[in-house]
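Dear colleague,

As promised, here are the two records you asked about, laid out in our usual form so they can be pasted straight into your sheet.

NAME FIELD: protein one
SEQUENCE, THEN STRUCTURE:
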Amino acid sequence: MSLFSAASPTNWPPIAPGWQRAAFWAWIAGMTTVAFFSLNSRYGPPEGPGLDKIFHCVGYMVLALQTQPVFSTRRAALIAALAMIPFGIAMEIGQDYVPGRSADSFDALANSAGALIGIALAPAFRRLSARVTAKLSPS
């Protein structure tokens, strides 16, 4: 089955044609942005008690949610969303090799928590994405 093939409407709300590709590139852009800021010594974590953990959690929640309109099956979207957990861990390990940055196991935990929250919110987000793209698509 193709990444962008039509899903069965009975078990997975379909995303309007053309929107899956846009969602895919938005997801890639999101991961690229996270990798850029994670592995760049010029941009450190936000100041404030616990603020960086909130950014980590929300960022990875968004990445996990972004998988929903991309994939044509629930299983593929779940696997991609779960892949955000090792991606977050890899970003933290990578920071150990960036001057001025260091790996933080609590950041990795916040990344994982965000991905899991995104997975929990995924069914509602998928339904919302299907409705919005259907209304925005030309008839």
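NAME FIELD: protein two
SEQUENCE, THEN STRUCTURE:
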Amino acid sequence: MEVNLVTNTEDENEIIDSPLTVFRNEFVGLMDLFANCQTVMDYLDCHQGWFCRCAHPFQADPIGENGYAIGVGRIGAFGFKVDPRVGLHLLPQDQGVYRICTIPIPDQEPQGYEVDFQAEMFLREDAVPPEYETPIEVMTKVEWHLLLTVSLRFPRFIHRLPAQTIQSTGDNILAMVVRRVSNSLTKKVQADFHRTHNISVPKKYKYQPSKTVALIHQDESSTSLS
């Protein structure tokens, strides 16, 4: 998927010369898998076998052995749209902790935006609640934290809007995109994991969607994930 910055009223030089606007959001999510922790780690470690097919309908192209270029489709507001792609590096797990960080996409020209994606996943084995009424005894809870920073150079006509309008609209769009992608990926990974391991998910189990936990604006201090 190619990236195109779409503006009909401003030329490229006006975008390049415009000030940088930064959006920083923190997200959390939870994925439940009905198997022990080791089985889940064995599956997650072999992401080459499941990541691209579970990313669908979003485009995912491999970058080397542990990276992917992800496209989420055209997004934007006020007549300004981007078709962003971000390179993600899935680092090998370290004592059950998985990290994902941003990497460059080979041969991609500089864009009018920058993305800093810093995520961690933690695995915790737990007993299956009795109310699920299943013979499965243990499950693994995969909790993920994401700190996402997106920097954009808007065309000048966007800066005619109030700064608060630009900031709140960008925050809302970013949160919407992350929820859409993460909820789709989580559901597909859950289904793929249980299908490949021939595990029947308890009928009384309910999927919990991800959520935004903080909006961190550019004038605030940096927050690290823990």
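A couple of things worth noting about protein two: Strands lie at 20-33, 59-63, 67-71, 75-77, 80-82, 85-90, 97-103, 113-127, 138-153, 211-217. Residues 163-196 form the longest helix (34 residues).

Best,
R.
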